[in-house]
Amino acid sequence: MRALILAFLALLLACPVQADTVAQIVAAQSAAIEKPSRQTIGPVISSLAASGDPMAAQVLEAWGDKRLGQRKSDKAFFILAPDSAGYALTDLSGAAAGTAAKAEITELKPNAGVRGLIAAALVQFTLSDPDPVKRAAALNSIAQDPNPESLEPLRAAIETETDPALKAQKLRLERLLTIRFDPTPEARILAIQSFGSDSGIDLRAALSPLVATTRQVAETPSGNIARSLRPGRDISETEAYDLLVAANLAPARLTIEAQKKALAAHIVDGKVGGISLAELSDQKARDLAYTALETSGAVPAAATADEVTAAVAKYQVFETYAEPDPQVTAAALEALGGIDRSVGLMTTADLAMDGVSLAAIYFLAAIGLAITFGVMRVINMAHGEFITMGAYTGFVVQTLVPDKTLSLVLAFPLAFVITFAAGVAMERLVIRHLYKRPLETLLATFGISIALQQVFKNIFGTQARPLTSPDWLGGALVFNDVVSISYIRLAIIALAAIFLMVFLYIMKRTRLGLEVRAVTQNPTMAASMGINPDRINMLTFGLGSGIAGIAGVSIGLYAKVTSELGADYIVQSFMTVVVGGVGNIFGALAGAGMIGGLQKAIEFLNPSNTLAAQTYMILFIILFIQVRPRGIIALKGRAAGD
Amino acid sequence: MSALLEVSGVSVSFDGFRAINNLSFSIGPTELRAIIGPNGAGKTTFMDIVTGKTRPDSGTVTWGEKGISLLKLSEAEIARAGVGRKFQRPTVFEDQTVAENLTLALKSPRGPLAALWFHLTGAGRQRVEELAAKVGLTDHLSRKAGELAHGQKQWLEIAMLLAQEPKLLLVDEPAAGMTLAERELTTAMLVDLAKSHAVVVVEHDMDFVRRLNCRVTVLHEGSVLAEGSLDHVTADPQVIEVYLGRG
Amino acid sequence: MTLPLTETPTPATQAPAPLSSFQKYPGGPGAEPPAGSGAEPRGSAALAPRSFLAKNPSVFWFLLALAVLTAVVTILSPALGMGAMSTSFVKTLGKTLCLCIAALAMDVVWGYTGILSLGHMAFFGLGGYMIGQWLMYARTEEIVVAALASDPIPPTAIEIAQGVTTQIFGVVGSSDLPLVWSFAHSLPLQLMLVVLVPGVLAGIFGWLAFRSRVTGVYLSILTQAMTLALSLYLFQNDSGLRGNNGLSGLQNLPGLAETSQDDLSIWFFWASALGLALAYLLCAWATSGKFGSVLRAIRDDEARVRFLGYPVEGFKLFVFTATAVLCGLAGALYYPQAGIINPAELAPIASIYLAVWVAIGGRGKLYGAVIGAALVSLLSTWFTGGRAPQVPLGFYTIDWVDWWQVLLGLAFVCVTLFAPKGIGGIFDRIAPPDRKGAPLGPDDGALMEKEARE
Question: Count of domains in chain B?
Answer without folding.
Answer: 2
